[in-house]
Amino acid sequence: MFQRDAIESQTGEIRLFAYCHEGMGVGHLRRTLTICNRLAQAFPGLKRRIATGSPYASLFESHREVGWVKLPTIAKLTTGAYRPATPGVELGALLEARRQLLVGAVERWRPHILLVDKAPVGVCGELEPALRRVRAHLPRTRVVFGMRDIDDAPETTRREWSALGAWRALEECYDEIWVYGMREVFDVARMYQMPEGIESKLRYVGYVCEEPGGNRDRDASSTEDIVVTVGGGTDGDGLIRAYLDHAAPQAASRGLRSTIVAGPDLPTESSSSLRRLAAGIPGVTWISADTSLRERFVGARLVVSMGGYNTLCEVVAQGRRSLVVPRVSPRVEQLLRATLWHQRGVVEMLHPRDLTPQTLSDRVMKLIEVDGPCSRDGLDLRGLETIVHRFGQIREEASRYEAAVRLQ
After folding, report:
1. Contact (Cβ atoms closer than 8 angstroms) between residue 348 and residue 329
2. 319, 373 Cβ separation under 8 angstroms
3. Please, where are the H alpha helices in 58-195?
4. Cβ distance 35 to 387 under 8 Å?
5. Tens of each residue's pLDDT in the chain, 408 residues
6. Are 227 and 259 in contact (CB under 8 A)?
7. How far is Cα 303 from Cα 316, in angstroms, rounded to an integer?
8. Distance CA 250, CA 364 (A)
9. DSSP state of 90
10. CA terminus-to-terminus distance, the chain
11. Largest Cα–Cα separation, the chain
């Protein structure tokens, strides 16, 4: 049980608890970790703990200063459904175990700030008991929902959130909502028809990405000219194969190098055949997974991707040109964002219905001839700094509260 309700301890320590379920790929976990690490740089007394079921948390274990609460893994299928990663385990029993772990974690940790990524009530509603316990026993804990500007098609998100009781939770359990985007690009309140009580909690912080490093112009000493990345890789084999079938040989004939970042979820059978194909093309490097894509983008002439949130933000922050072939199923989030950014002249887009080895190669060859950085006019890429500023305001409010408690 909770022993006290205090925002800040006598030592000035602040505890941040982040929930990031991550059933597919590593994008949400990367963004959550980026936010937590940036806050720790700005506030040295910050203690961080991340709860996740990602099977790839070990890729980030170099971040030893972060406390991990490892939940039993639930895999997200390409259909959007979930299943236990361990054969023979019943989904309901696994979800109940995860619920209990989350409740126990917040009870022991007594976070001053609870930051929830993407899913307001967690996978299949698993986080709601912990949210209710925090509200009942730690009413001064600041509970924040962090959402990408685009979750999915508006009608799909409204339907799913209604079925899970997410609207009620946002109204009753959350203090504020950080939108990782811009109202001018995608107005979440209007598009998702948010009730007034929820809309009043919105804070658009801008796009979340690390500050660009080094010169934004292409580095001639780079080890790659074209980077092809498909996020987690679950459904990225089509794009990789199309690139290797035509664009990669064409690039090699021009003396250009290609790096394929396959992603940890690329199906094993596809991975094996594609790696063999890549090995036969000069200048092609195959990488199964890379948690430091930002650094790889620094020297790239062109990035070909499916347009995941982190990838687009980091590529544009680096000033790199980008060709996006977005995912359109089971969610259209990537298609919607790529379309909006294409309309603003930030990225180039090839709709997957038009994807063939020849069309992809034609677009790649055209884009590598374009000199200079891409346009990022009108995009607010200072999301991390805005979060730091808001966190500082919350910290000051917490300090004033603690001072008042000590005077009583």
Report:
1. no
2. yes
3. 91-109, 128-137, 154-164, 166-173, 188-191
4. yes
5. 444 444 444 446 889 999 998 766 788 999 999 999 999 999 998 999 999 998 887 777 655 688 999 999 988 776 778 888 888 889 999 999 999 999 999 999 999 999 999 999 999 999 999 999 999 999 889 999 999 999 999 999 999 999 999 999 999 999 999 999 999 999 999 999 999 999 999 999 999 998 765 444 444 444 579 999 999 899 999 999 999 999 999 999 999 999 999 999 999 999 999 999 999 999 999 999 887 788 889 889 999 999 999 999 999 999 999 999 999 998 999 999 999 999 999 999 999 999 999 999 999 999 999 988 888 888 999 999 999 999 999 988 877 766 666 666
6. yes
7. 10
8. 9
9. -
10. 24
11. 76
Tokens of 95: 């979800």
> The tokens of 156 are what?
């799909």
Beginning with the edge strand found earlier in the chain, give each strand of the sheet holding 284-287 in spatial order: 284-287, 258-261, 226-229, 302-305, 321-324, 348-349
Rounded Cα gap, residues 254 and 366, in angstroms: 13
Cβ atoms of 33 and 60 within 8 Å: the answer is yes
DSSP string, 326-342: ---SS--HHHHHHHHHH
Which residue type, as a one-letter code, is found at position 403?
A
Peptide bond into 330 cis (omega under 30): yes
* CA–CA dist 344, 364 (Å, integer): 20
Cβ atoms of 224 and 368 within 8 Å: the answer is: no
